Amino acid sequence: MAATIRLPKHDVLQALRSSVYPRVGGSGSTCCRCPLGAKRYLLTDNIVKLKEFQHKKVAIAYHLPGTKGALEVLIEMKSQDVKFNKDTYVLAFAICYKLNSPESLKICTTLREEALIKGEVLSRRASCFAVALALNQNQVAKAISIFSQIMKQENIVCTNLNILIHIQANMLKTLIEVLKDAAEGNLSKFVRRREFSEEVLAKAREKVKDVPALLARFDEIYGKLHINGQVTTYTLDTLLCHTPGNRKSHMMLLNRRTVSHRTFQPLNQSLWAE
């Protein structure tokens, strides 16, 4: 069964190359398609250097304004049959997400299907980039399919992707129920409450604003989320691309709360005072 849907390596390389070199075909020497100074020397038999390069590339890729350089390296790795590891897939999907085009979605889908056929387990982070890209390209069904295969969906990125899926799929009543459950659910003090991006909540409000009953319920829940400290000013893009150096810095990101522009106090305190 798997053999009938296997994607030839040539097709993967062709899709990658065409996104970087749109005027170059699939034939001819690989060297001819590499820009002057391309880092071919990194792809040697020295595995230690390759792993070090991969780790550094993953760490800095999200902070670079351009992503085609990193994509060129992935093309070279693919052409030399270098095995992709979990970090490499995260990098590849992050690059496709940043490029945000129909072509990059095709590349992401091709790489993902190839990985699954090989029985490789993709990390939650890689899958989140794939879901976000599909949503950005208005491919809601694809986003839902990928999201449903994420085993643990409790983190802040998955929480916000789930809201965006409900928004774009017009599942508005369920959307309100999800937010209500997050704001009013009886949780142990040892269980972290779900957190939402202000940006994502703004999109949710825009979606329900023409339905008075839903809008009233949303505004009520929105206020409770703020009081509970479940709203962050970080955008989904920032949450996706954040690479914590250690657990402490990661917790600092998640613990950040919105601040009242009027009182400059934590918003939950400001709301109670008012």
UniProtKB/TrEMBL annotation:
Signal peptide: none annotated. One of its GO terms (molecular function) is RNA binding. GO terms for biological process: mitochondrion organization; regulation of mRNA processing. It comes from the Eukaryota. One of its GO terms (cellular component) is mitochondrion. This is Pentatricopeptide repeat-containing protein 2, mitochondrial isoform X2. It comes from Neomonachus schauinslandi. The gene is PTCD2.
